[in-house]
Structure prediction request, 410 residues.
Amino acid sequence: MEVAPQSKSPASPKQRKRIALAAILFIALAAGIWVWRAQSTAAKPKGAGIVQVVSAVVTQADVSARLTANGTVSALQAVDVRPQTSATIKAVHIKEGQFVRKGDRLFSLDSRTEDANLSKAEAQVVKDRADLLNNERNLERLRGLFKQEYISHAEFDTAQNLVDVSRGQLAVDLASVEASRVARSFDEITAPIAGRTGAIAVYPGSLVQPGTSTAIGAVLVSITQIDPINISFTLPERELTDLQQAFAKGEVPVSAKLDLSGQPALKGRLVFVDNAVDTASGTIRLKAEFPNPDNRLWPGMFVTVTLAPRTLTGAVTVPVQAVQTGPEKKFLYVIGEDHKITALPVNVRLIQDGIAVVEGIAPGARVVVEGAQNLRPGSVVDESGSNKQKTEDGKNTGKDGAKPNNTGKQ
Prediction:
């Protein structure tokens, strides 16, 4: 006799809820563990303890040490034109701001008085020559009579004396004529130099008179030479020795840059080194001369002056970012063959154009350029950047000059 199996009774609602809650808790726990492991893996860097840096190779080259200073444009020469006689202006032959050449007429003064004096002096010369000629003829007649002893020696001496007096008077009056001509020339005022005229403060009919710059109307016009033109600037006295040596050897090139975008630098030469150092500022005053045919430089302008009086031969250079500042002196983070960092003190001689000229390190060494804030002596680094690639390519170059394929990781 077979016994029929008994069927299991269905789970109650409370049991189903418990099973569902346990399943949810298990899934949540598993998800939490998976997220924690993922975060831990992401937070842990590849190669723990290794710092990523950008490196550069220490190089050696000749570096021109440039000096930069602020300069002021000044005229090569400037002249204040003043009258030398008291007269009224007859004509003004120039305009304000006009370029004139040496010898060009600037002003004409009323010259009627000087013309009359010159005519009077010339007439007196004519009279003196006539008197001299008459006295010389009279002397020749008396000389014949004196030889025949018809006149006394005293009468002959008197005639000779008249001739000598006439000659002296003629010389005096000839000098008077020359003085009158000089005085007359002062009425035609010409340009003593070539340059550009300034403001004109007189007009036809104005009364002018000689005097100092404080006298009213003393300066008729000023003329300033524009081409060539000077730039004055100062440099620290410690540069004096190099400047003197370069100046003694020959021409020292100087460039000037205007404070305008798109303007090329102007080329000139050093022409003057002052004979004394300014004790107040400890600087030496210099001048450079620049051609100025297009009038780009104007007296009173401010420019930036650059010159290179010396060259550092075989200078050791590094990027300026590689130089670190320590509590006592500057130093570099040097990368060893084992990729460990060593702090090497150096002496910085010059910084320009993004490079630093240093002493205390040999060319060919690798130094840290970026990422130094995370380093300490003994840190292990992983180099990156174009500088490292160039170094590796140089080391791996074969005898035939061909470079191996380094696209894959070792």
Residues 112-147 form the longest helix (36 residues).
